[in-house]
Design goal:
single chain; 7 strands; alpha+beta; 2 domains
């Protein structure tokens, strides 16, 4: 099992945001981040929050929120912008407070992240985003970051993943009875579409056809249908009269699932039993006489085929819920004082 899978997909997504932020910096440019700082620095710096024996500075919060704030500035203005910026400041501040709490808990548990894990993680992110070492360095410079500073951010993200796995995810249990219950509740989701094998005789109508031409084709279809009702051989009549390429195959179109046939054609075919012939059916390409050759009714994907997918979803839901409860307990047992609301 890889390092990534051991951490869990949810935490992997969180750590990917580190590089995503750097990529956005390269797109909008270095000047954008500087402008944000200049426009928001009513208070140059100070302490935004105290978390036990550590502090979170105002400049640290503004640096963390700069890219997202720039995006908001490009879309909003006036009071709406002010409210959105204040909300963003608060959310960013609390994220940094929670980061401090989680890192402190990791240190108390003597959890560590090795240098090779940090390198592996960064290399994987570079490969996924198709960026070179030079491009990464350019992104870091645009944020005023050194490679070592960025590695430390990644290390902290991996350390948070470790402590959450140790304190939350590893303690979760998903019972087979829970999986079975979800499976029963989601029968519609796991429904397998039925299949129809169909043949047809096509009387093609060009998009620009006149009313007279349309009527001629309809009359031709009616005459062939009459022959079929009188006991005519479908395959022979298809070879003789069908305008479609399936005429060479005695009208056989093939096997299809729901949504794969023309509107109108599909609805008519769905009402037929094997061997039955439809009335004349009009679609956007012309008139059809349809015969269903065989029908395979849909069922449901078996439980064992979807068991692991259900388990992963339940684990993620439980992880998010228990993670929040765990985070609340960390905060309740810590000294946290917010000094600057933004």
């Amino acid at each position: 099992m890889t390092r990534t899978s051991r951490m869990g997909r949810w935490w992997w997504q969180h750590s990917r945001l580190l590089l995503a932020g750097l990529m956005l910096t390269l797109v909008i440019g270095e000047g954008a981040c500087h402008r944000v700082g200049a426009q928001t620095n009513q208070v140059v710096d100070g302490i935004a929050a105290v978390v036990n024996d550590e502090i979170v500075t105002i400049s640290e919060v503004r640096e963390a929120m700069a890219l997202e704030l720039e995006g908001i500035r490009q879309r909003l203005s006036g009071r709406t912008l002010q409210n959105q910026a204040k909300d963003l400041y608060h959310r960013t501040l609390m994220s940094l407070v929670h980061l401090r709490l989680q890192l402190e808990r990791a240190r108390k548990l003597n959890l560590q992240v090795q240098d090779e894990d940090v390198t592996y993680h960064i290399d994987t992110l570079k490969k996924q985003n198709q960026i070179s070492n030079e491009q990464l360095e350019q992104m870091l410079q645009s944020r005023g970051l050194t490679l070592e500073a960025y590695r430390e951010q990644v290390r902290e993200g991996l350390l948070v993943a470790k402590v959450v796995n140790a304190e939350v995810r590893s303690r979760l249990v998903v019972l087979d009875t829970e999986l079975q219950e979800v499976y029963q509740q989601r029968q519609e989701r796991y429904k397998v579409a039925g299949e129809l094998t169909v043949s047809h005789i096509l009387f093609l109508v060009a998009p620009q056809a006149s009313d007279e031409e349309v009527e001629r084709q309809r009359q031709k279809a009616a005459e062939v249908l009459q022959k079929l009702r009188a006991g005519g051989n479908f395959a022979e009549l298809a070879r003789q009269y069908s305008d479609g390429p399936s005429a060479d195959q005695a009208g056989l179109l093939g096997t299809f699932r729901a949504g794969e046939l023309l509107p109108g054609f599909e609805e008519a075919a769905a009402k037929l039993q094997p061997g039955e012939i439809s009335d004349i059916v009009r679609t956007r390409i012309g008139f059809h006489i349809i015969r269903v050759e065989s029908r395979k009714d849909g069922g449901h994907r078996p439980f064992e085929a979807v068991r692991e997918d259900i388990k992963a979803e339940l684990l993620q839901t439980k992880t998010e819920q228990k993670y929040q409860e765990w985070l609340d307990s960390l905060r309740q047992s810590a000294y946290v004082k917010i000094l600057y609301e933004g």
